[in-house]
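Hey,

Quick one before I head out. I ran the complex with P53 overnight. Inputs first:
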Amino acid sequence: MAMKENFLWGGAVAAHQVEGACQAGGKGLSIADVMTAGSRTKAREITDGIVEGKYYPNHEGIRFYDFYKEDIALFAEMGFKCFRTSIAWSRIFPNGDEETPNEEGLRFYDALFDELLSHGMEPVVTLSHFEMPFGLVKKYRGWRSREMIGFFVRFAETVMERYRDKVKYWMTFNEINNQMILSNGIYAFTNSGILFEEGEDRLKTVYQAAHYEFVASAMTVKLGHEINPEFKIGCMAAATPVYPRTCNPDDVLLAMEEDRKNLFFTDVHARGRYPSYVKMDWERRGYVFDITPEDLAAMEQGCVDFIGFSYYLSSVMSADPKVEKLGDDLAASLDAVENPYLEMTPWGWTIDPKGLRYVLNQYYDRYQLPLFVVENGFGYEDRLEDGQIHDGNRIEYLGNHIRQMVMAVDEDGVDLLGYTVWGCIDPVSFGTGEMRKRYGFIYVDKDDEGNGSYRRIRKDSFYWYRDVIARNGVDV
Ligand code: P53
């Protein structure tokens, strides 16, 4: 019993969380460059351009732009079969609406992908991972505008042409469903470059933006297959399974409804059309959108080849008003309630390995498409002791998840392409902008204020994961 021979074990990051070099090589300002550092209790601030005196942790990231060769050598030491990262759109089109790309930006990713390939690692590339040129926010108000479709497709076509013989696995929009968490405006900004206005109907705005993204994604899938028929192009969603608090049918129906907020996105990507439950909801709410027959035809022709997803946590819904809501809007719905069977990380995310087996089956039952776990990981404040990091809790977390994943493949028959651990080298946290929320097998000496040597140190989990890969997931 094992994963298939060519199973893609690896790690994942996103350009803006690691690269740094935010002004190098002709790069334009991106939306990640105008987000300050926050914390578990304090939200990150979005500023109008770069404001003097504020700290922006992504400007330097972990200097992956400078150290990528050394870092990739460390990934190779662990035996990575693949490495997932994103292309910073603003390196290629600094303002987003240029006619021609920035050659220096393209050259950086040539070098990066060559380096991966020279180590036998398959690059897995997200086109838009919470990063777009800030110019598109200023000039077009982000994905509120239909013109974004053209800019995105031009960006996608440029990089898919350029790297047609280097990159086979692509994904269009990272965690496209996160923007349904409406209470926290950060997601509309990071997913879609949208700043909510006072009193606006947020749900309506997000549905319209998502529509343009669906069209852009589908056009990209079609175009990508023309550029190279070997391409595997997927979507990317945050899989947060929703459980009913009790067997009361009211709880069950509420959980189903909440779950659909997530599944809606993969439904459209996989089937190429809007599901009836969402069309009915629009009708009830009196929503009329800018959706043309050409859009719908494009969506039909651009169904994804696989479902890429992140998995960190599950959530619980209760129809009983007496059950207290958690009210933490960083990762799940504001209406989510406690799960008494699960523990949480210090950042309030439930730890639910079986939830991974559950979502693998849920997606596979629903779409019969290959799946790819492109993020899963444990954010924790690791301690450096005598130059070492004993991250046994991370090993336990990942081991428990990997065992459930192997069961989904071995016992349930799910078709799984690979598994990439989030933040394989400590990145800047997306949600809080902190460094102390660490995910890596490799520690990076940098703190929340940006001080440190940026030195890389192998954690205990580094050697453990090397062994997991060497055994291809057997007896983890
Ligand atoms: P950080 C919420 C729920 C699930 C995944 O997150 C999420 C989020 C956002 O907080 O984001 C993904 O760094 C995302 C990565 C991110 C990672 O999870 O907030 O794709 O960019 O870094 C972990 O701890």
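The chain has a mean pLDDT of 96.

Talk tomorrow,
K.
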